């Protein structure tokens, strides 16, 4: 997997592929809520795929893997190409933050309480007027001074300051690179590298604090690791999927799934696969760090999680709107007269309202078959608190 992701269907992607394969409709498979693309990946070299997700960083990874045709060069020479710009920004930021880097070094080589205090006192855009001013200036800087977002927003929390400086310096090198066809690959690898080291439990709603000896040891260990080194590894893990011919027929969309199916933008559709969120956790809150890094747009920032306020929200994660969202989904797909395959666990939000997907879908489709699988859900400590939960995962196969 590229980035660890809540609700990934990696464990059952082959079931989904086989179920879709059993439907006889010719045409492309649309993965409406594609996340990290495990279902699209399982369809490689079979049906052409269209992915869609509301979060733009996921789309960059999908483009890098499912629609890019070729890399302009192998990873080693790509790194040689990026290195001078990376080094230049690294030098500037290291100099600018030399006092804070020295404090960080003392905190990391001191006691657990030293690190607790360092993280508590750390200034960032959410709590410091000086940082907000610096962010406003960086947002409109046309020079290398534009590249400071991770340092101003996420240092001494999600990342060490040293790592945040590396994150900004890699982004500076990527934005200055002239091989525009490689951009999604480089940005996807940059996000993936950051996700490997991020001080958070798989999602990034909040960062972890050194509240125990083991948490302290883990943060000290992780904060000693280099983002550039992870970036080198990630350039290989964000690999092209399938053949060039298969990729050349795929497409990637970014936006609300319900808008996509209601606006007639989709062509040559054979089957629609929908894996909507099934809890009250809005993905945009749980993955805001990667979304803000990808967009690099210096948003507002607030709360302990240093979260942006203009986050995408979906009715699928609201008890008051989940039923209407399912009706919208089923109504629009039935109108396109193609099969709909929905993944949804027995423990989903709809169940809390004593409804199943079949109850809604059968109002629009002639036949709704329910296939059930026992699965381990990765909640990653979302609203349920636990990190793994055994649940019945259902596939609803809806045909006209
Ligand atoms: C359960 S996850 C999908 C996981 C994916 N199948 C995988 O294996 O990685 C749900 C995804 O839907 C996205 N999402 C939530 N509401 C959406 C909406 N209304 N339109 C499009 N995407 C949405 C989230 O960002 C998240 O990536």
> Order of helices and strands, N to C?
HEHEHHHHHHHHHHHEHEHHHEHHEE
Helix content: 40-55%
Described by the principal axes of the CA atoms, the overall outline is globular
Spans with pLDDT under 50 lasting ≥5 residues? none
CATH topology name of the largest domain: Rossmann fold
Descriptive labels:
binds S-adenosylmethionine; Rossmann fold; alpha/beta; single chain; 7 strands; 400 residues; seven-stranded mixed sheet
Q: What does the secondary structure layout of this molecule look like, with pairings?
A:
Elements: H1 13-22, E1 28-31, H2 38-42, E2 49-53, H3 56-67, H4 75-96, H5 98-109, H6 112-121, H7 129-139, H8 149-153, H9 161-176, H10 183-197, H11 213-223, H12 227-237, H13 244-248, E3 251-254, H14 257-262, E4 269-274, H15 283-286, H16 288-295, H17 322-336, E5 340-345, H18 349-352, H19 357-361, E6 367-378, E7 388-399
Parallel strand pairs: 1-2, 1-4, 2-3, 4-5
Antiparallel strand pairs: 5-7, 6-7
Helix pairs in contact: 3-10, 4-9, 5-6, 9-10, 10-12
The structure holds S-adenosylmethionine.
S-adenosylmethionine (SAM) is lined by residues 5, 7-10, 33-36, 38-39, 52-55, 58, 256-258, 275-277, 283, 314, 316.
Structure description:
The chain is of the alpha/beta class and 400 residues long. It folds into 2 domains: 13-69 and 240-285 and 309-399, Vaccinia Virus protein VP39 (Rossmann fold); 75-237, no CATH class. It contains 19 helices and 7 strands. The chain has a 7-stranded mixed β-sheet, with helices on both faces. Strand 1 (28-31), helix 2 and strand 2 form a beta-alpha-beta unit. The longest helix has 22 residues, at 75-96. It starts with 12 loop residues before the first helix and ends with a strand. 46% of the residues are buried. The mean pLDDT is 95. It binds S-adenosylmethionine. S-adenosylmethionine binds next to helix 2, strand 2 and helix 14.
């Amino acid at each position: 997997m590229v980035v660890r992701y809540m609700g990934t269907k990696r464990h059952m992607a082959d079931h989904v592929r086989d179920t879709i394969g059993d439907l006889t409709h010719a045409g492309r498979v649309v993965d409406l809520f594609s996340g990290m693309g495990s279902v699209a990946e399982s369809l490689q070299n079979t049906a052409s795929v269209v992915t869609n997700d509301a979060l733009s960083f996921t789309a960059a990874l999908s483009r890098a893997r499912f629609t890019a045709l070729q890399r302009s060069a192998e990873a080693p020479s790509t790194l040689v190409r990026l290195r001078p710009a990376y080094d230049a920004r690294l030098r500037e930021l290291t100099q600018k933050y030399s006092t804070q880097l020295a404090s960080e070094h003392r905190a990391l080589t001191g006691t657990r309480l030293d690190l607790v205090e360092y993280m508590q006192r750390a200034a960032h855009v959410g709590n410091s007027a000086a940082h907000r001013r610096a962010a406003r200036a960086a947002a409109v800087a046309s020079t290398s001074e534009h590249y400071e977002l991770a340092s101003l927003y996420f240092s001494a929390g999600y990342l060490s300051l040293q790592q945040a400086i590396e994150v900004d310096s890699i982004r500076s090198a990527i934005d200055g690179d002239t091989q525009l066809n490689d951009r999604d690959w480089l940005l996807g690898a940059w996000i993936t590298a950051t996700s490997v080291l991020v001080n958070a439990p798989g999602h990034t709603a909040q960062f972890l604090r050194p509240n125990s000896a083991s948490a302290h040891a883990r943060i000290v260990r992780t904060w000693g690791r280099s983002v550039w080194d992870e970036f080198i590894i990630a350039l290989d893990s964000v690999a092209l999927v399938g053949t060039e011919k298969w990729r050349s027929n795929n497409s990637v969309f970014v936006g609300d799934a319900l808008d996509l199916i209601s606006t007639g933008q989709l062509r040559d559709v054979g089957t629609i696969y929908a894996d909507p969120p099934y809890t009250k956790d809005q993905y945009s809150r749980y993955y805001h760090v990667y979304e803000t890094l990808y967009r690099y747009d210096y948003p507002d920032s607030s709360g302990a999680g240093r979260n942006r306020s203009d986050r995408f929200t979906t009715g699928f994660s609201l008890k008051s709107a989940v039923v209407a969202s399912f009706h919208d989904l089923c109504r629009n797909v039935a109108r396109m007269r193609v099969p709909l395959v929905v993944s949804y666990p027995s423990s989903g939000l709809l169940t809390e309202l004593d409804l199943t997907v079949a109850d809604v879908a059968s109002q629009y489709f002639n036949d709704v078959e329910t296939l059930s699988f026992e699965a381990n859900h990765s909640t990653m400590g979302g609203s349920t608190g636990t990190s793994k939960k055994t649940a019945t995962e259902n596939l609803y196969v809806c045909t006209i």
